[in-house]
Amino acid sequence: MDILHWTYIIVGSTFAIYIVIAIITRADTTKDFYVAGGGVSPLANGMATAADWMSAASFISMAGLISFMGYDGSVYLMGWTGGYVLLALLLAPYLRKFGKFTVPDFVGDRYYSQTARMVAVVAALFVSFTYVAGQMRGVGIVFSRFLEVDINTGVIIGMVIVLFYAVLGGMKGITYTQVAQYCVLIFAYMVPAIFISLQITGNPIPQLGFGAQTSDGVYLLDKLDGLLLELGFTAYTAGSKSTIDIFFITAALMVGTAGLPHVIVRFFTVPKVRDARKSAGYALIFIAILYTTAPALGAFGIYNMIQTVNKASTNELPVWVDNWSKTGLISIDDRNRDGVVQYHSSAEINELKIDKDIMVLANPEIAQLPNWVIALVAAGGLAAALSTAAGLLLVISSAISHDLLKKGIARNITEKNELIAARLAAVAAVVVAGYFGINPPGFVAEVVAFAFGLAASSFFPIIIMGIFSKRMNKEGAVAGMIAGLAFTLTYIIYFKFISPELNTPENWWFGISPEGIGTLGMLINFIISILISRFTPAPPADVQELVENIRIPKGAGEAGNLH
Q: What is the mean pLDDT of residues 252-268?
């Protein structure tokens, strides 16, 4: 059976499962819609959190980045892994005990200010829309190759699917759908990794195969270093980025993670604070399975790609090149007309252009694995992208319906109308996300890195100080959020959209790339917040007492005070 038919069978089956789950777990109340009724078990919530966390950037793009960046690509691995640990251990239990299931709700109550709430709503929308754009781009890439349609059509198909189960099921439907999606994505990630590890090193465990010898007795990483140096690239195990940029990108990804609203809300879907801690532990285990495999998969991918394409005859290119050429994500231009493909670091010599985002998806084809494995990877990529997109859409809809309407401009809205508003907001969010998926500002992981930078510069300081500083007041929080977000957004827009030709290390401030500038934005937020708080009135006594109570490590009962 060919790849297309296998794709229809496997992807169609998984989508049918997601839709059935959405129908069975349909949300009937705002509590179901926002926090799944607060009754999800820690194990299920751990799997759902892992699926929510491991987006298209983790599944599709991260190993691709590591393939082409080598050592430098590890910043994404370190940042995202460390960030989840930071969130799970430092923030989640306290936020869960506070009892507010959205970041704007926490900000509004902790900083006793409607203005602070509205600024947080704007920040949440910026972060979520930037992040979801990367997911829709990932969906489009998968569909463009495996359903043989263009990327734009693929994005639209993904919009329709995610809209159905996100709008119908709310957090309740999304949670149980994400449990199924985690099972699909982790199986789809590990099966080809095990196959390819066996092919190249004879070791069935990818993490061990990464450091093993190839069939000729040379260690894989040594062989990769030699191949890449011969082609004019930096050695695979050597870094080309400056130390300061690596530090700032890693830090932005870490603290940005801790401020991501769609992950934070997951800790409100369990009955107790103790359950939130358990589900965080389960999620860390589930996430580690994929994250420890990604470096191996990246190395396998670039090794096989070079072996099959470089110096290959243009008349006898591997089938996978022809398949992916139809998507426009890989192209070959035989400039010197010698009938041989030249892959090289020099733009004048190089004849191969390949999108970083296709490496994980193309890996099974490059390794000539069975067609069902190739289709399985497609299903996994879609599961990763759609699970995170659904979580982000829920954040967007809750920010609009709960924080903007219920807590802001329409305080007397009924629960029924609030639920309708939430669903309409999700519909509007899908349309906007689809637009950015069709017109992305970069490759998937890069777009996601921007979202993390925005989260780091806007949310992380006010959440940390809101939990651990009784002196932090509303004036400091509002000024810090605005300053951090405005600075980071301006920097990214300038280098990515206004003057992309200047987006080089020589022109960056202090050598910090747009992917890492969120760390500087965070520091600006901290400094301004602390200074202004010191020269303005202290928070009311009841707020200071509330902050003190948050840090008492006792369990809480019902999940989230919704109204």
A: 76
